[in-house]
Amino acid sequence: GAVVSQHPSRVICKSGTSVKIECRSLDFQATTMFWYRQFPKQSLMLMATSNEGSKATYEQGVEKDKFLINHASLTLSTLTVTSAHPEDSSFYICSARIRDRDSYEQYFGPGTRLTVT
Amino acid sequence: AQSVAQPEDQVNVAEGNPLTVKCTYSVSGNPYLFWYVQYPNRGLQFLLKYITGDNLVKGSYGFEAEFNKSQTSFHLKKPSALVSDSALYFCAVILIKAAGNKLTFGGGTRVLVKP
User: Fold this and answer.
1) What is the b/e burial string over A91-105, where b = at least 16 CB atoms within 10 angstroms of the residue's CB?
2) Do residues A22 and A37 lie in contact, with contact meaning Cβ atoms separated by under 8 Å?
3) Which positions in chain B touch A42 (Cβ < 8 Å)?
4) Which residues of A touch B97 (CB under 8 A)?
5) Would you state the pLDDT for residue B96?
6) Residues in chain B with pLDDT < 50?
7) Measured between beta carbons, which residues in chain A are less than 8 angstroms from residue B31?
8) Which residue from B44, B49, B51 is facing A108, i.e. has the nearest CB?
9) Which of the ends of chain A has fewer CB neighbours closer than 10 A, N or C?
């Protein structure tokens, strides 16, 4: 149980285009989902926290107009990288918390490798 | 503010030998502590957590960790390492009811187990 999927696993896009990454909780309802960014050989950096039905809370230094997050349902959150540039190339990982469970449990998706050319 | 430190960027160990990955934390209250493992190009997999109770916590794949409040440490251990344990390990902390219960990760320690 407690499986989180991400789609796509890899995406290559041209500079200036937008790309959407989906994060789904497959067998549970997630009240809160988190989006992280990971650079090579580095730790995870929290980008934003999204709660179902409300606006995402972005961490300091993360551009909310560039990284659009939508948490439309209890099983789906999306991250859209708008007007992507090569410096946005990174590994993006989502995680989810189970509804009605202890609020500290988080389950991570397999990640999405974004390459902007 | 809460923080986690993993003082070693990489740990090398021979297969069959004990493995230790160090983690120290800094929080102003009672921490919830976690270890995760990441294989190449994959997300994080949960290994174990400390909430309350016994200081020695047993987790997945034969790993265990000991919570030491006086030393503010939560080192990950495995008595006999396997080549398949080679991966990136992250320690993380949550200070409950602060900062939205967000996980704060350490910098990660790469473990290389040689045959």
Assistant:
1) bbbbbbbbeeeebeb
2) no
3) 107-108
4) none
5) 63
6) none
7) none
8) B44
9) N
Mean pLDDT, consecutive 10-residue stretches, chain A (117 aa), reads 90 97 92 90 88 87 94 91 95 86 79 95
**Residue B91: closest C-alpha in chain A:** A43
Residue of B nearest to A43 (CA): B107
Q: How far is Cα B74 from Cα B57, in angstroms, rounded to an integer?
A: 10
Task: At A26, list the tokens.
Answer: 């497959």
In the block, residue with structure tokens 């490798």: A113
pLDDT of residue B103: 86
Residues of B in contact with A106 (CB under 8 A): 103
Residue B76: which region, alpha, beta or left (left: phi > 0; alpha: psi -120 to 50)?
Answer: beta
Burial class (CB in 10 A: 0-12, 13-18, 19+), B7: exposed
**Which residues, numbered 39 to 78 in chain B, qualify as contacts with chain A under a Cβ-Cβ cut-off of 8 Å?**
41-46, 49, 51
The predicted structure's pLDDT at residue A102: 66
Supply the pLDDT for residue A1. Answer: 66
CB-CB neighbours of B71 under 10 Å? 10
- CB contact under 8 Å between B42 and A57, yes or no, is no
Q: Taking CB atoms and an 8 Å limit, are B102 and A46 in contact across chains?
A: yes
Distance CA A111, CA A93 (A): 4
pLDDT at B97: 57
Please tell me the predicted confidence (pLDDT) of residue B98.
Answer: 55
